[in-house]
Write a structure and sequence with these properties.
The protein is of the alpha/beta class. Helices cover 51% and strands 13% of the residues. The protein has 2 domains: 3-179, no CATH class; 226-290, no CATH class. It contains 11 helices and 6 strands. Helix 4 links the parallel strand 3 (77-84) and strand 4. Helix 7 crosses helix 9 (227-267).
Length: 290
């Protein structure tokens, strides 16, 4: 079996898998190598054995622990990686739920139980969200679980953090220089976004970006070898993103109309002024007032 056939067989996955996971979250020699490069770039480490980085996945979330040849934890850290193309302030809560599952799996593998008199040691958690959506955000954002509490709590007693790293163009360039696979991935995604901004349909935008990635030999030929799989994943992701955006826009417009109607009914505001202030369609506001 030649190398191309072997790699292709290793990546025959459903299109519902995200491209980020397909690149960094598989048990193939290429993916192991890229995953270690990403881990080293984020942690400032220089580990050299890809097999020492133990991989598990929960849905499209990658979680990792670094072990030596006798299975001891090297850096006492459990890291979760997730890619998001939409801004999501609920990541800390999601991270809490992910880690609950991850720690359960970790303890089960080691045969550890919590009903004992001595404390059970666990790896330090780290949750990293790779963001490449259209909303402008800083290079790094620390999202806090306490922001979601019904009642403000500044004690820090029950805090959880998701570190969101912006991997869009012109953001975190030093990180992307340290990890060429991440740079190749973000370049491909950016190419699709740029094509759509120029008015291309989703399919045409993906097709053009794919042809470009193949010409540029991004990810050491991965896009050429895995063309059909990557096209399927890319189109699925962007269809989902478009559907989410439409759902969000519909919800935002409905809220704007509701607020404009409230201004008219409660404060006797002029419908035209209320619609303008709330950025709501006047025709929809007038229809709702009937």
């Amino acid at each position: 079996m030649n190398e191309s056939t072997s790699v292709n067989k290793g990546f025959q996955h459903e299109y519902k898998d995200r491209l980020f996971k397909a690149i960094f979250g598989r048990n193939t020699p290429q993916s192991k190598k890229w995953r270690l490069e990403l881990y080293n770039a984020l942690n400032g480490s220089n580990y050299t054995d890809p097999d020492a980085l133990e991989l598990n996945t929960i849905e499209n979330v990658i979680y990792l622990t670094m072990r030596n040849d006798i299975s001891f934890l090297v850096d006492s850290q459990m890291t979760l990686y997730e890619q998001q193309s939409t801004y999501n302030p609920n990541m800390p809560l999601r991270g809490l739920m992910y880690f609950a599952q991850a720690y359960q799996i970790y303890l089960s593998k080691l045969g550890k139980i919590l009903h004992r008199t001595s404390i059970v040691k666990i790896p330090n958690p780290r949750f990293v969200v790779f963001y490449n959506g259209s909303r402008e955000v800083p290079d790094k954002v620390e999202l806090k679980l306490s922001d979601a509490f019904e009642k403000q709590d500044t004690s820090g007693n029950f805090e959880w953090t998701a570190t969101m790293i912006n991997i869009n163009k012109n953001h975190n360039e030093s990180l992307q220089k340290k990890c060429e696979p991440l740079y190749n991935y973000t370049s491909y995604v950016e190419r699709i976004s740029a094509n759509k901004k120029r008015g291309m349909s989703g399919k045409d935008a993906v097709d053009e970006a794919m042809d470009w990635a193949i010409r540029e030999n991004l990810l050491d030929g991965f896009f050429k070898i895995q063309k059909e799989e990557v096209l399927g994943m890319s189109l699925t992701e962007y269809d989902e993103e478009e559907a989410f955006r439409n759902f969000y826009e519909d919800g935002r417009e409905a809220k704007a109309i509701e607020d404009a109607v409230m201004l008219v009914n409660k404060y006797n505001a002029d419908p035209k002024v209320a619609a303008k202030d709330m950025n709501a369609p006047l025709e929809s506001v007038l229809e709702a007032l009937k």
